[in-house]
Amino acid sequence: MGEFKSSALGRVTVYSIQGCPRCVQAKATLKRLGVPVCDVDVGAHSKLRGMLTELTGHSTVPQIFFNHVYVGGGDDLLKLAPEELQRLVTLVKDQLSLERPPPADAPPPPDRNLSVDVGRAADGAAELSLLLREITLKLFSEHLSDDGKSVDYSGMCVNPVFARYCELAVQLQRVELLSLSRDEKLAFFINIYNALVIHGYLRLGAPTNLWQRYRFFNYVSYF
After folding, report:
1. What Pfam families does UniProt report for this protein, alphabetically (predicted)?
2. Which of 109, 121, 154, 179 lies at a C-alpha separation of 20 to 30 Å from 58?
């Protein structure tokens, strides 16, 4: 653990991304502790991710601060000794009772206006793959269990956002890839592969044994 003056007092700040099981699990743990939690989506605040990596030395999420005390990731939170965890909770609650406003350089609170605009048009291959990725993360975020260990695929199937995803997936047959750079093509196919797996799970069900996994990953495709 370390101390950083740039973290806000009177709250626990969690840097996370949508659809991250470890992030969901960490926030559920903090909720049970009864401390105010500021969830900063580094997917929505992209510049913060680089700053966070420079500050903590880690590029993974979640990254957790109690006031100005850096705890680490989700596993680090769970490994804290009970007396140390209680000390950190007390630090946060003591600062909260002072009703101090957060410092000017504190991480921004979640911006509700930064939610995924699932209805926006996708202009080109790169934008289409990015929008599909954002929708996939949104669906995961809405249907992950509190412990981050299971996904409600049945609920995801009837979510109107998934219907929008299916509409966008049809557009993949018309995308033009020749004008993309190598890095843009790489990002495109990574995003599409991850989205395809989830789409396949929802339409066909998740494979439950080795043979089903073999068939799933060899035959499920967009064409």
Report:
1. DUF547 (PF04784), Glutaredoxin (PF00462)
2. 109
Rounded to two decimals, the pTM is 0.61
How would you list the strands of the sheet with 2-3, edge to edge? 2-3, 69-72, 63-66, 12-16, 37-41
Structure tokens at 101: 């406003």
Work out the number of other CB atoms within 10 angstroms of the CB of residue 199.
Answer: 19
Please provide residue 2's backbone torsions phi and psi, each rounded to the nearest 5 degrees.
-145, 170
Start and end residues for every CATH 3.40.30.10 domain found in the chain: 2-101
**CATH code, 2-101:** 3.40.30.10
Q: What is the DSSP letter of 113?
A: G
